Amino acid sequence: MRFSRTLIAGALLAAHAAVAAPALTSITPIVDSTTPAADSAPFVALESTMLHTLRQAIQGDAPSLARDQLEKAGQTRQADANWLKASGYDFGTQANQQAGIALLEPFNRLPAATKAESLETVTIINRDATQGERHQALADAEGIGYLYFLADAMGPRLGQAFLTAYDKGELGKAAALIKASEVSTGAAKKHFNYSRPFLQTGNTIHLVPDDVVIGDDHPYTADGGAFPSGHTNTGYTDALLMAEMLPERFVELVDRGARYGFSRVVLGVHYPLDVMGSRMVAQRNVAHYLNDPAYRTLFEQAKAELRGALEKECGMSLARCAQPQGHDDPYAAPAMRSFYRFTMTYDLPKTAAAATPLVVPAGAEVLLEAPLPQLSANQRRQLMSHTALADGYPLSGGEGEQNFWQRLNLHDAVLAAQ
Fold this sequence. Notes:
- The protein is 56% helix and 0% strand.
- By secondary structure, it is mainly α.
- Helix 12 packs antiparallel against helix 19.
- It is globular and about 55 Å long.
């Protein structure tokens, strides 16, 4: 009992320190440190390798790299599709899509002023993005069919080992399972039918030309509805599942999921509301899968293969290989806490309505099981509650799951306990 009280007291202090959302101007240097324009030679080298391997994968056996190759780009040698197919696992896609739509219904009750501010925020981020941010955003966007983007959140040492193992097909089970766990947002986009920011009348969004991946200066664009973000759902799902398999880098990988969503705003193809909504849905879906015994069996097999392969490529224990590397490891920097907190709200207005008591859904605590194995399920639930975002920010309307998944702060929950 003493441990539980100490834990919660520390969590309350951590939550109190994060009440004020950081301003966008203070976020820019943090974001820049995670791009190919960072001032760390080992990190920049890792970014270069990530981009090189991505471009090679997209090109495949073709004599040169061309835009039409993006349509069929995706994991082939990297994923063990046969293993997953043989399992016969039913991902329950339609049911999970409908659960996501229900979760995001508060979007339809948002005031026009909030949506207008969301448009203003994407306009500013898109306008003021540095070249490094744009290059990172393009690599994230056009590498959606792969897991290369996760490497930089692992640090230069483990990140290089991951790229080697992934490209050699040594992580085949994890690659297949993670990608298959992405629940499409297509049904939700049709349901909410919200026009993208660069299509709004009178907008000043700058569509970013691709001078880094395909290299043809084609302006990056997107079709379909804006809310929620499909790419963010993909990036956050991938990052969170990898974090569950590599709890030594849990916080850094969760931050990478948020960083992936930020890239969508940089490109001007999504509003902050879109990426916030997708974070909610991805968290909910991963928890749902991890609580399914049949899925968990596959997950443990994939996790064991991944960890063994990474340790082999590292040439040292995984715990040592995953250790933070100081200045060369920006995702492990304390400043990322401010970044993650910013992406939970994007400084959108908070209502003055009475706070709704946070209710942790049954099974949600499974998300903290891997990084915090020393805690009981009840302690993890308490931790989620006490480090949660304040109520009243956009998309936290309603009660129960609608309120919880927007307010869940996985970054602070793990750090508060550690």
